[in-house]
Amino acid sequence: MKFDFGTVCERDMDMMFLNAISTDKGFLKLFLDKTDFPKTVFDVMEVYLSKSDKDGESDITVVIKSEGKKYGLLIEDKIDAIAMLKQPERYIKRGEKGIKNKDYDEFYSFIVCPEKYYKNNDEAKKYPYAVMYEEIGEYFKDKTEPQYAVCYQQISQAITKAKKPPKVEINEKANRFYRKYKDYQEENYPELDLTTNRKANGYWAHYNTRFGSVYLLHKIGEGRVDLTFNKAKEHLDKLEVVADWLRKNEIVNVAATVTGMAGSLRVIVPKLNMEIPFEENDEYDIEVCFKTIFDLIEAMNVFAVAESVSGLL
What we know:
Oligomer: single chain
Structural class: alpha+beta
Strand order of the largest sheet: 6-7-8-9-11-10
Radius of gyration: 21 Å
C-alpha cells in the first residue's frame, strides 16, 4: 500500500521516532550501538518530546535504565531546517544539567538527520553521535510488521525532501575567508580530505581520516586542532598513549582531552583571524596550522593501514 504524507516536517518525524523508541528496543539500539553504552539489557523509563529549559529544547529526550543506572539520550532531529549556531553545545549543557539534577547518571547527545544534511552542515558534525535517516530506513524496510511499512515510506519521503543542501546562515566575511583557506589547502596539501563545503562559513574545518569514525576539526579562530574519537571519552588513558607516541615523533604539544562526549588529541596552533582576509594572516601561522593537520592525519592514516594489514595476518 502506498502512503503520501504530503510535506513531511520535523515534528512528524519526532512523533514517529518517539513511538518507535517507546515500543521497539531494536530501534533504540540503532542509537545505543553508536556509543560506548556497555549493556545489552535495558528498559525505557521516560520519553519526552520537546523538553526545554532556558538554554533551549531537546527534540526528543529518552531515559533508559540498566542495572540500576540511568542513561539519558538527547536527540536533535533535522530534515532541512537552518542549523542553529552553538546548538550542539547547548545539548551538552542540558545533558550536564540533567546529571546535576539527577535525571540520569550519564548522557549521550545525538543528531538524527538525512546523510545529505549531515555532509553539508558543519554544525551537525559537532554532535558527538549521529544516526542517519538512511540507516533507520533500512531498519524499517527489514521489518515485517505492517506499521513499519508506513514508517519506511514516511522516512523515505523525508529523505527526498532533504535532497537539496540545507539552508545555512552565511556570514559573507567568514565564507570569503574559508574559500581562501580551502584554496590554500588544495594548492599546498591536496592529499588532505577537507569535507567542509565551500559555501559554508567554515569556522570549524572538517577533515576525514582513513578511520571512518575518526575525524579532525580545525577550529580556525580558536587556535585548536582536534583529532576526534567519538567513543573515547572514557578511554583517555589510551589516547594519552597515542599522544605520548606523537610527542616523541615531533608533534610536541599534543594532549589527550575530552571534547563534549568524545575524546580528542588536541594541538594548540596559532589563531587565524577570520575578521580579516585570509591572505593577511601571518604566512608562518597558516603553515603551522596546515602542517599540524597534515602530521596528525598522516599518523592516523598509518595506524589505519597497520590495522587493515593486521586483519589479513
